[in-house]
Structure formats: C-alpha cells, structure tokens
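Researcher: Next entry in the queue.
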Amino acid sequence: MTRTLQVDLGARSYPIYIGSGLLSDVEVYRPHLISQQVMIVSNDTVAPLYLDVVGATLAEYETRSVILPDGEEYKTLDIWNRIFDALLGARFNRRCTLVALGGGVIGDMAGFAAACYQRGVAFLQLPTTLLAQVDSSVGGKTGVNHRSGKNMIGAFHQPRCVIADTDTLRTLDSRQLSAGIAEVIKYGLINDADFFSWLEEHMDRLLQREPAALAYAIERSCRDKAQVVAADELEAGQRALLNLGHTFGHAIETGMGYGEWLHGEAVAAGTCIAARFSHDLGWLADQQVARIHRLFERAKLPTLAPRSLGTKRILELMAVDKKVVAGRLRLVLLKGIGNAVVTDNFDHARLLRVLDRCR
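Model: Structure for this entry, 359 residues:
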C-alpha cells in the first residue's frame, strides 16, 4: 500500500509517496518529470544498490548519472561542482530534472545544484535512508557545508515530489537506522506527545525494521513536518522548532570533523542537552528528562557530547549557527514533551554549566 501526503505550498505543493517497491514504479515518477532530460545524482554506496533499478524504470527518458563519494565530509563546494560538470557535459537545458538518489547529503547537494543550475531546475527526492525519508527530503532545505559551519551555504528549493521506498531501509546499516530514529523522536518532542508515547511503546519494532512500524513512523514524521513547512516555508518563525537539538548537534558535527559523528547521532546528543538545559530552567520535570534520555538510549544513540570536544569550542561553533540573530543565540528548548519553543532569553553562564555536565 502506498501512502500519499501533500506538502501544501500553493502552486509549489508536492506529494510525498511512502511505500514498498516505489523505485521501480514509473507511474510514480512520470507526472513529475517535465522533459526527457533526467540526471540521477547518487553516491558510491547507494548507486551499486539502486542506480540500475531507477535507470531501468526511467528507460524511456534520456537518463544520465553522476556518482559522488559517500559521506558528510564530501558535502563541499568542490564535490558539488561535479554535478554541474555532468549537466553541462550532457548539454542539459533548463527543463531538465535532477533526481537525488541517496541519503541526506545527496538530497541536499542535488537540491542545491537544482536551485542553481540555469537559475533553477526541477528535482525529485528519492531518499534511501530513514533520516532522509523522515526529515531532510521534505521541506526544500538544500546546501553544502563550510569548514566553519554545517549547511551554511544553500538555498530553499522545493522538490516536485518525494518518493520514499521503504524497501531501501533493508540495506541500511544499524548505525544509520538509529541516526534516522533520532529525527523521528524529534517530531514527538516538538509538537506530538502522542507520537512520542507511541515511540516508547514501539521502539523495539522500529529497531527490528518491522515494515508496518517503519511505514507508520515515516508517515507520522512526514505529516508533522509537512504541517510545519506549510505554515512557515522559509523559517521565519515556527519552522525553527524543527531544529530541536540541531544547534548543539551541528556544533558537535563540525567540531569533531564532518563524518566522525552521524547527523542523527549529533542531533540525539544535542536534543538531550536541550532537555537538560530546559530542566535547569525549570521547564521540564525530572521524569520527563528521564523519559527523553531513556528513549534515545533504547534507540542506541548518544545522550552526551563527546568529552574530546571542549565546552568553549562548542560555544564558539554555536555562535555561527544560522539561528543567531543580531548577535543573540536562539535555542529550541522544551516546556514539556510535545511543546518546543524558540528562545534567546537565557543566562549564558547557566548554559555553560549545563554543557560542562553534558560531556
């Protein structure tokens, strides 16, 4: 059964398809390909698994591909430029479509290339990791990293559709699966307390990759995110809540070196730090903090920042976060499970003490 959701953005609205076997169903792609020219962007881990499947499905189109190295450390302008080399080498015009076949890194890079090539072309998201299926493929955030900060170079550029084939999760390693679950937990914490409770009850089923549990978690996560994106596409307000754990997490990723910690691992630790700071401010009860930490631990995710990364360095990296406005750092914190808020009204000395305890 294919589940279909809609990201409601007026003329730029698009569907999210969730189901088994979708990569090989040409009828899913066809309404969203605007010409014969199709460039598949993938990496050297995913391409051997699924490129032939997608290529055969799109055999009626003029299909080319470009294969990038796999890993967050390759999410750079130099590697990104290879997509333009492939597009220009194939003489693709402004009616071409890019197809992002891979995880969050490929989705971000292909989407950013689509935003820039000939001032903007169409692209499709074919996410093959749980993290990409529940988070990065939805919402139109695209970009690459800079050595000083994650995703600091990019654009908002919405896909024409998202095709989430749950069969691809069978080949996902356990560490990547857990990293994706970190983003799933995030949705429960932000605005869906009932979903958080469901995750507490069904975490073992997710770790065992039960198809029905995974499909439900993906649909619920995408539905929660689609509602936020529809209300605040360009992150002027409410959408910033989706960054729960990310300010701390991005600092961990950057400070440790891209690729050392997976994005979801850093977000898990960052979310637990946010929960502890929320508790320190009197917003979360002991029992709520314990529930949050216990769920991340059950998902086999870290709950502390690495000891090798000093508190001073974490704060330095947080200072270049995209949520810094007029020199003031804004954090996404919790006033309860299912009740996230954005605030810059906190004592930095207090934050420093919490960070010291969370390493």
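Model: The first helix runs from residue 26 to 29.
Researcher: Noted, moving on.
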